[in-house]
Amino acid sequence: MSGTTHKTTAVALQNRRLAKVSRRRGVWRAEPTDAGRYFVQHGACPAGHWSASSTPASRPATPAGRSRPKREPRVTGLRPVDQLMADLAEAGGELSVTAAEGGYWENLAAAATRHGKVPAGKILRVAGGRDWSERIIRLVAPPTWITVELQQIPVAESLRGPHPVVKALRDDQDRLPMSRPVRARALRILDAIAKAAVGRGYTVTASKADSGYRHPRGHLVVTIGRHPNTLIVDELIDRVPHEPTRQELQRNQRYSWATIASHDRVPSGRLRINLERGRHIRQDSFSDTKTLNLEDRLPQVLQELELRAAAAEEHKQRREQQRQERKRQWEQVRDQAIVQAREHHRARVLADQVERWHQIQRLDAYLHAMQATIADLNPAEHEAATEWLAWARQHRKRIDPLGQPLRLPADPRFTAEVITPFMQGWSAYGPPAH
């Protein structure tokens, strides 16, 4: 059984406890449960299949401000894709679900889009919820770029007067290693993109080789505004059944460890364009398909480049706004830290003056006692004591805070070390870079 639809269906049935799914050695196995067999016969689940705790209708209303309850789609005879759309319609276009396994709801939404189940004028978006297991599925209006009509980009039948970058690619036989017809087509497609980009005012340059490599990986660099993006053209590879050669068969019979490849990888002749930079808006690669040639998809390629450049510019502006806001907040905190550091400095100066004033009071009493003592000394001791008293009186004048001009003390140098205790956890050396 090819594809993944059967796996998606099996997992959906397992989520509803109608089947058991297992995988061993790469082989998927699904077996119906008793409830599943009952469902096949009666078209409904047996009584009591859903407990009160898991039935959406029995869940209490969610208070304002709290997360919405996760709901499971009702168990009916509908296919999972149809059931998803029915649940979305009942929920008003937004549904909170639990992710049974990685990519399950994303694949289901993609299948709904692919098979035309989404209402006209709407698209399905699947986003993460409040925890790893929650998915929020929404029906939303498509962005403008999806509905805009794109102009076709002409591709010449032969490479005449190519863009200089494409001409250099053509002349370098080591680049674009493909068969001659496929390589010629790849060059014509690149030339069409280059000329269309230049016609819209964009810059087209050659890709530069990374350090240690002889040739660059990219083939074309289109710069829109200040945002370059690299285009790479390659040929898709097909896997075809391998026909064992006589030598391989003989070797396989002779040696127990010898194996024969089941498939060969061969060039398909189909081309693909990969975009290297930026977060994809539509997709990262564009290729030949069963219904469309790559030439028909060139308008989407150029639109993707423009959308990525616009998104990059918006992101850059948003980052700059955030940087300016962080700078403003840092400057506000720093200014407040300077005010607090100044107040702290003045408080320390005042406390020092008070301490010295109390010291003066004690010193005056001691100097008075010294003078009385000196009066009773003999002449031999009187001279030395008097000299010590004179120095003490001069010292008293020097440290007396009231003997000096009373005014606000000068500010200290507000270095990073001085203001750090008042920066509320911010760096005193500058605003954060990110």
Structural description of this entry:
The protein has three domains: about 5-140, no CATH class; about 165-315, no CATH class; about 325-420, no CATH class. Helices cover about 45% and strands about 15% of the residues. It is built from eleven helices and ten strands. It has helices spanning about 5-15, 35-40, 80-90, 105-115, 145, 165-170, 180-200, 245-255, 300-375, 380-400, 415-420, and strands at about 20-25, 25-30, 95-100, 125-130, 135-140, 205, 220-225, 225-240, 265-275, 285. It has a five-stranded antiparallel β-sheet. It is elongated. Residues about 50-65 have low confidence and may be disordered.
Write the layout of secondary structure elements.
Layout: H1 5-15, E1 19-24, E2 27-32, H2 34-42, H3 80-90, E3 94-98, H4 104-114, E4 123-128, E5 134-140, H5 144-147, H6 164-171, H7 180-199, E6 203-205, E7 220-224, E8 227-241, H8 246-254, E9 263-275, E10 285-287, H9 298-375, H10 379-399, H11 416-419
Antiparallel strand pairs: 1-2, 3-5, 4-5, 6-7, 7-8, 8-9, 9-10
Helix pairs in contact: 3-4, 6-7, 9-10
Domain unit count: 3
Q: Roughly what is the average pLDDT, rounded to an integer? A: 86
Q: How far from one another are the termini?
A: 50 Å
**What share of the residues does DSSP label as strand, in percent?**
15-25%
Radius of gyration: 40 Å
Biggest sheet layout: 5 strands, antiparallel
Report the principal-axis shape. Answer: elongated
The structural class is alpha+beta
Number of helices: 11
- Uncertain parts: 51-67
Read across the widest sheet, the strand sequence of neighbours is 6-7-8-9-10
Helix content percent band:
40-55%
Number of strands: 10
Pattern of helices and strands? HEEHHEHEEHHHEEEHEEHHH
